[in-house]
Specification:
Order of helices and strands: EEEEHHEEEEEEEEEEEEEEEEE
CATH class of the largest domain: Mainly Beta
Number of strands: 21
Distance between the termini: 78 Å
Helix content: under 10%
Shape: extended
Structural class: mainly beta
Strand content: 35-45%
Length: 268
């Protein structure tokens, strides 16, 4: 085959790879089990067959970390966790290994050593901004910010409570009077734990609780609270309105499908 300049085009030939390299023929991972994490400098994982914590850095050989750092006896003395996991906390440069009997051993990359053993097992985790959210069976349905201490006795700081914040800004060039809001959602039985907070650019504020709303098959209707400011007819007014819907308790049922805000044009 030739191109427009009459030069021969080669499409390539499929040949056997000239070489391939195994990182290891001894260590690996169990099928359907992926306790593995990568950092800026290395890859860490758990080999459930060999009961070994492993480290691989590009350009260097594979390291059986739990053996080299002398925690192999601890690993061998425990049953493997039911759901092993490996998590990297980039804020503190720590790798968390939940691999032994629902406990977690912590490896600090900055000092190059295992520094702690935590008596919790992180079943769920995710990164949010600079924080790591984490949860586990022994702490129920709660989700916590990891490694933000109030004092030396606490592993966790705050429960991440449900919260939705939004701005009503349709027709944002005109002033409006805000009347009612309609929700479709699901909450726990005690609706007084759900608080609705409002404020407008006119420095008006209003607070209401969800137990003041009418409920018809999970469709809620609530009146936007009055401000008490006679200069604005005691109504929340403005071109926009900020709304915060939050729960004061850990509500596993908290969900919102939509929010509709009814308003009128303000002529005064």
């Amino acid at each position: 085959m030739k191109d427009e300049g009459d030069s021969q085009i080669s499409l390539g030939n499929g040949q056997v790879l000239q070489r391939f390299d195994y990182i290891s023929t001894i260590y690996g991972l169990k099928p359907k089990c992926r306790p593995i994490a990568n950092t800026d400098t290395a890859i860490y994982w758990w080999d459930g067959y060999q009961k070994e914590i492993l480290n691989y850095t590009d350009g260097y050989s594979l390291t059986p970390l739990s053996t080299i750092k002398n925690i192999k006896s601890y690993i061998n003395s425990h049953e493997e966790s039911s759901i092993p996991s490996v998590i990297y906390d980039n804020k503190y440069k720590e790798v968390l290994f939940n691999v032994a009997n629902d406990e977690t051993v912590v490896y600090n990359e900055q000092v190059g050593a295992f520094t702690s053993i935590y008596t919790f097992s992180p079943i769920f985790y995710c990164k949010l901004d600079n924080s790591m959210l984490i949860s586990g069976d022994e702490i129920g349905n709660n989700i916590y910010k990891y490694n933000e201490l109030d004092d030396g006795s606490k592993l966790f700081k705050n429960t991440a409570l449900p919260k939705v914040q939004f701005v009503v800004n349709k027709d944002s060039v005109v002033n409006k009077v805000y009347d009612n809001q309609f929700f479709n959602g699901k909450f726990q039985n005690d609706l007084s734990d759900i608080t609705l907070k409002y404020n407008t650019p006119l420095e008006q504020e209003g607070i209401e609780t969800m137990d003041k709303a009418t409920n018809r098959e999970l469709d809620y209707k609530i009146a936007v609270p009055r401000n008490g400011n006679v200069n604005y007819g005691e109504r929340l007014r403005g071109k926009t309105m900020q709304c915060i819907i939050e729960s004061s308790s850990n509500d596993p049922n908290f969900s919102l499908q939509y929010v509709i805000t009814k308003y009128r044009i303000s002529w005064t």
